[in-house]
Write a structure and sequence with these properties.
The protein contains ten helices and no strands. It is mainly α and 246 residues long. Helix 4 packs parallel to helix 7. The radius of gyration is 26 Å and the shape is elongated. The protein starts with a helix and ends with a helix.
């Protein structure tokens, strides 16, 4: 049971490390995008200073999370924090680049994709709710009466609809890909007839088992079971009988 749990944790860690590398690339792409906007669009001096401050702190955040061993073990909580900070940085940038009229408004899609790939449907819907709140914050409104009007709510839903569609499709693709990978791993490491580990799966499990025995200085045992005269059973009663014996 401990070996199986350790194997599950190891596989999850490998998956999270891959996702974390992808998230880091998304974060750097976001930084480059905002930097290019600042260089080529040339916002006002006061706004440029605020954007530069946001770029500096967000770059420091990325470096601390991915390259300074701030988190030694990957976790979905870490990725959730990263996606939230990404959302804050985008909102900060939009505040100084024209709000919802900013050409960077679609950068919110990066938050949605990150959440959909790593955190699942519930977290992605929560991110969408936060993005909707940011749309309200960044939009031009004239009080609570306008915010509660059907015209405003309809316009907000229309603006968010493409992002909702991306969130839904990405979470579906992510779930299908994860299921396919788990299924492929299962088929590559187990025997079709018995459901037990095949040679590849056994080797992986044994390496981990004996590695833990060496690391924690504890004994490990291996039990071998053999079926005598299996060939004779196959010859006398057929391979189906041999399969039932196995």
């Amino acid at each position: 049971m401990n070996v199986k749990r350790a194997e599950t944790v190891s596989i999850e860690q490998e998956e999270l490390r891959g996702i974390s590398r992808t998230v880091a690339e998304i974060e750097w792409l976001l930084l480059i995008l905002v930097l290019l906007y600042q260089v080529f669009e040339g916002p006002a001096a006061a706004d440029q200073a605020a954007i530069s401050a946001g770029l500096f702190f967000y770059a420091a955040f990325i470096l601390s999370f991915h390259y300074a061993n701030f988190y030694k073990v990957e976790s979905r909580w870490k990725i959730a924090i990263e996606s939230f900070v990404m959302l804050v940085f985008i909102t900060w940038t939009l505040w100084y680049t024209g709000g919802l009229a900013s050409p960077l408004v679609n950068a919110y899609l990066l938050v949605i994709i990150t959440s959909a790939l790593a955190l699942g449907k519930l977290a992605t819907m929560l991110e969408m709710a936060l993005i909707a709140a940011c749309f309200v914050l960044l939009g031009e409104n004239s009080g609570a009466a306008k915010l509660l009007s059907l015209a405003y709510i309809g316009g907000l839903v229309a603006q968010l609809a493409p992002m909702l569609l991306v969130a839904y499709i990405t979470t579906m693709f992510s779930a299908d890909i994860r299921y396919g990978l788990n299924r492929a791993r299962l088929l590559s490491e187990t025997d079709d007839l018995t459901g037990l580990y095949n040679m590849r799966g056994f080797t992986i499990m044994a390496d981990r088992l004996f590695g833990q025995a060496v690391r924690y200085n504890r004994p490990a045992s291996l039990l071998m079971i053999d079926s005598d005269d299996l060939k004779a059973v196959n010859d006398l009663h057929g391979h189906e009988a041999g399969n039932r014996l196995l």
